[in-house]
Amino acid sequence: MAILVIAEHNNVVLGTATLNTVAAARAIGGDIHVLVAGAGCGAVGEAAAKIEGVSKVLVADDAAYAHQLPENVAPLVAEQAKSYSHVLAPATTNGKNYLPRVAALLDVDQISEIIAVESPDTFKRPIYAGNAIATVQSSAPIKVITVRTTGFDAVNATGGSAAVEAIGGAGDAGKSAFVGEELATSDRPELTAAKIVVSGGRGMQNGENFKYLYSLADKLGAAVGASRAAVDAGFVPNDMQVGQTGKIVAPQLYIAVGISGAIQHLAGMKDSKVIVAINKDEEAPIFQVADYGLVGDLFEVVPELERLI
Amino acid sequence: MKVLVAVKRVVDYNVKVRVKADNSGVDLANVKMSMNPFCEIAVEEAVRLKEKGVASEIVVVSIGPTAAQEQLRTALALGADRAILVESSEELNSLAVAKLLKAVVDKEQPQLVILGKQAIDSDNNQTGQMLAALSGYAQGTFASKVEVAGDKVNVTREIDGGLQTVALNLPAIVTTDLRLNEPRYASLPNIMKAKKKPLETVTPDALGVSTASTVKTLKVEAPAARSAGVKVKSVAELVEKLKNEAKVI
């Protein structure tokens, strides 16, 4: 049995989500190969070869794969997948984009966002925004799976010495083209990989007030997130959203500031190790999941917290 | 051009779901059912394209039980022109749904198919991508902006870390993200008018599609509950606890 893990990367750096996905592959058990599809992505291939537990790295270096366009990447992955029992990708926006396309090309069902491996054919996954956990069993000849990264502790990025092999693919399918992208530039850690996350909700009142959270986050080395209410109110952009409809995070410490704790938000952060809630409403549902709750005015509490840390 | 919109009947997003005592699934008896929120956004986008003169006809399709006619009537009240129900009382996986939609696409030949990015019950996030693969069309998933320009559609997508814009050859598949638009409410006159719009019912067999699945659900459980912790009285006490008790800073 061999497992193919599709690497998350930006052609320059290997994404840490790959390490969590390899961890899921190890839980399944078997020979683990990593596929890097990109353009000018040699350094990513070398990084993938060092991942603990990986025995082979396949690198498909072609301009057609530069932006992970699913019309181009899915046929490549589907072709490679035929030699494997399992194909795993992280449940990032990339993985969620191309992997169902791969599954359909292979005529198999996909199992989305697994959080645990029970056996090589049986997995746990959240449904109804995490309000229920389903245990599902697959009889597909090739099991196509996305992995929720917060469900698996990352393997070591170093220690391995896998062989790297260059492979070719069909290239550009001629159906789609990359036009451009606007990526948030920040020196803070990425939300889903940060050890500490500070998030603001409707209680922040406006986008300008998020400066209190940025300042606290910089002192803690934390990422900054937001509730859907704060995003819908236009305080901050959607890529900061934590919740069922945004990013799923599970940091060591999650500080919820001015967030009431709607089910949809809890679905995105309730697996955090330690949750702190700061809210002036002592009845706010967020306190029901918080390890430490502080009832108070966030505009006084947050600056004081920054000072005392 | 013709636009096809797929909608799903799901438990209303305000309902707090409960797991059945025998762990066979989630209890859906007597709970409010609605159109999946991402599907509402898909219908709204199609209606806006028609209002702009880009779309000439909107066909809405649902795959589900007889009761899914309610959601199709809602879509008709919001501005769709006619509806198709592929009737199936089984709970179908995304691949089966995508195959059924492919059969409808083959028949209807739309230039654009709009779907929600995921249903809030199964949380699969697969159907649009699978339909794109089966049809051989390009896909613009998690869309926050859709602009039809000649024989292409430009789709701005919500991706990790920001936004990405792609140009797709038509026909194409688009799946909606939350910020694409804010769906309208159906007016009473439009709800009345919707009752007279055509709604056709077909079966998976008639479409020649097998809905067999390779995945079975063994059990469904409630997630591990998180219990409330302590309330601290001051910021100083909080910092002390985080440093010495939780040891996270």
Compile the SSE list and pairings.
The complex is a heterodimer of chains A (about 300) and B (about 250).
Chain A: E1 2-6, H1 17-28, E2 31-38, H2 42-49, E3 56-61, H3 70-81, E4 86-90, H4 93-106, E5 110-114, E6 116-119, E7 122-127, E8 132-138, E9 143-147, E10 163-166, E11 176-183, E12 196-200, H5 210-220, E13 223-226, H6 228-232, E14 253-257, H7 263-269, E15 274-279, E16 292-295, H8 298-308
Helix pairs in contact in A: 3-4, 5-8
Chain B: E1 2-7, E2 9-11, E3 33-35, H1 37-51, E4 57-64, H2 69-78, E5 82-87, H3 94-108, E6 112-116, H4 127-135, E7 138-149, E8 152-159, E9 162-169, E10 172-176, H5 188-194, E11 199-202, E12 215-221, E13 230-231, H6 235-245
Parallel strand pairs in B: 1-4, 1-6, 4-5, 5-11, 6-10, 7-10
Antiparallel strand pairs in B: 2-3, 7-8, 8-9
Describe this protein's structure:
The complex is a heterodimer of chains A (309) and B (249). With 309 residues, chain A is of the alpha/beta class. Chain A is globular. Chain A folds into 2 domains: 2-166, Rossmann fold (3-Layer(aba) Sandwich), CATH 3.40.50.620; 191-308, Rossmann fold, CATH 3.40.50.1220. Chain A has helices at residues 17-28, 42-49, 70-81, 93-106, 210-220, 228-232, 263-269, 298-308; strands at residues 2-6, 31-38, 56-61, 86-90, 110-114, 116-119, 122-127, 132-138, 143-147, 163-166, 176-183, 196-200, 223-226, 253-257, 274-279, 292-295. Chain A has 8 helices and 16 strands. The mean pLDDT of chain A is 96. The longest helix of chain A has 14 residues, at 93-106. In chain A, strand 1, helix 1 and strand 2 form a beta-alpha-beta unit. Chain B has 249 residues and is of the alpha/beta class. Chain B has a single domain, classed as 3-Layer(aba) Sandwich (Rossmann fold), CATH 3.40.50. Chain B has 6 helices and 13 strands. Chain B has helices spanning 37-51, 69-78, 94-108, 127-135, 188-194, 235-245, and strands at residues 2-7, 9-11, 33-35, 57-64, 82-87, 112-116, 138-149, 152-159, 162-169, 172-176, 199-202, 215-221, 230-231. Chain B has a 9-stranded mixed β-sheet, with helices on both faces. A two-stranded antiparallel ribbon of chain B has the order 2-3. In chain B, strand 4 (57-64), helix 2 and strand 5 (82-87) form a beta-alpha-beta unit. In chain B, helix 2 (69-78) packs across helix 5 and helix 3 (94-108) crosses helix 4 (127-135). Chain B starts with a strand and ends with a helix. In chain B, 48% of the residues are buried. The chains are: A alpha/beta (309), B alpha/beta (249). At the A-B interface, helix 3, helix 4, strand 5, strand 7 and strand 8 of A face helix 3, helix 4, strand 7, strand 8 and strand 9 of B.
